[in-house]
UniProtKB/TrEMBL annotation:
Residues 1-76 are annotated as: Disordered. This is MFS general substrate transporter. It comes from Heliocybe sulcata. Its main location: membrane. It is a multi-pass membrane protein. Pfam families: MFS_1.
Amino acid sequence: MNDHNARPSSVATDDSTVVAASSAASHRSASTASWHTRPSESETGTLERPPVFDGGDPEKSSSWTLSSARSHCTDGPPDLSTTRLCFAHIGAAMTLFLATTDSTVVSTSLPTITSDLHASHNQYTWVGVAYLLTQTACQPLYGRISDLVGRKCILYCSILIFALGSLLCGIAQNIIWLIAARGLAGIGGGGIVSAVWIITAEIVSEQKRAKWSQALSITWCCSAVAGPLLGGLFSTTKSSVVSWRWIFYVNLPVCLAAVLVFELSLRPVRLGPSQTASWRALLRRFDFLGLVLFVAGTSMIILGLSFGSSSGWTALSTLLLIIFGGVLLGTGAVYEIYTKRDALFPPAAFKDRTAVVILIITFLHQFAFNAGTFYLALYFQAVNGATPVGAGLLMLPYSLGSSLISMPAAWFIGYRQTRFHNTNGQKWVICLGLAVSTLGFGVMCLLREGCPKYVQVLCPLAAGLGIGMLFHAPHQVFTRALQSKELATGTSAFFLVRFTGATVGLAASGAIFDIRLLHLLPPGFTMGTHGSSLDLSGLRSLSPLSRKMEVLHAISQSIRDIWFVCGPCLAVALVLSLFIRVVSTQDDQASNSKGQEISTTSVPSAFCHAPANDSKA
């Protein structure tokens, strides 16, 4: 993808490929020094002093300056055998699958989990929100910390945290315990995603990176499909031994196996700390205040949405949380413009029209996508009476459609860009994707109790196809709006907004569902024996039939109101997409040479990006 005439077939199919293709180029100047393999004992006396200073002091030799290290690093990553590369990517795929699947695996199992743990309506969404929120909050730090402690260290520590969080989820005895454990798992999951992409990009040569990254792209797509299916499979089991808790237990042996595979395949490779990174530089340059303002503001709004559904929208606690959350976000935006530190958001994110439009589109896209993932599963189980695994199968038109459509969309972008040398293909895909997804969420309002099977298939399929077109093109257009020195920070900001949109979308859809359901349920009726607990088993056995149909209609209408919100959000994004500028891509090769000078020490996130790779898609 770094070649100006790259074949369309090598185009990344989703965000994951973008990250894989770009991580190594962004890290070249600071961390490529750790790409060499260990010399044999017979060679140690004749080799030059390597530019990796694992335990050594680079300052003791005046010949080893930063510039000479960079010069030495141009040889690229280590010459690993194909077997070692295969095993390294197998380990990467295993851990990446766990981390990405964990955000969707609970979608089909949540009704069963909340029923067993007697969770309330607003606690229902927090099982998913907790994982996404902590993953988002910690994401910008991982790239910097990996420079200081080494790639392997950050990966293994993240796997350990994720495994511990999964274990605590599996043994959770109440919903608060489960939510807290999900938050812990999210911290580890974010580190896994970051470290995997950095390591796999650094051990593969630039010419082969596109080919190898496709394996992880497939993993990313498969996780979106497998998550609801696996969650439903374990939740459907009636055995006293196997239950929904095994959704989390199975993570433990897979984590152990992945660590062993990684260690065996990467043993010859030193992925140690960067020689140019230091804790002092991190404390002096990293935008901690901006991150705190962003995360605190987002968290307050999410809490306000949660409290609004339980305490009322006019309650003082609800209003204060939402107002103060908005104030913190506004303060953070102003601070980002004027801060002298390495800001989370580059100046173009606030000044360039295309960049602003893309960030808004990205937020609204993820808002709708995550709402659909969780509440379609609830619709199939609560309204249609499907089992959890049945709901996972019924989710395939939505999840599989969104995964598969990204490939022809990427091919079309590559074809248009190769032929016309501009971003018109990206704009076409974005506009078409938003139009189809707006239509899809609009027709999903037809989903109600007793609707025909073809409606249950075609409506989610339309929404999924539109959503799937938007996984890659917006990122390409966004990076085009940035200067080369802003690419690493800009890509970090892009994914920060993307994860935030997913988190807020889930929280907001939960609030919509809760408040509407409380108004639509028959007087004196509660969903289960534990207050507002969503008890599906009790719902299926509800009598008389007229009362059951009345409750099903209330649930169906409440979920439909979520689509009523998602549709207009995507329509707004569609209108905004018309203002995206089409720019030339003729300067790709010039930007490539500049992008390779980006240092890891200026990258606030693992989602670093060199201009060459994304612009070539």
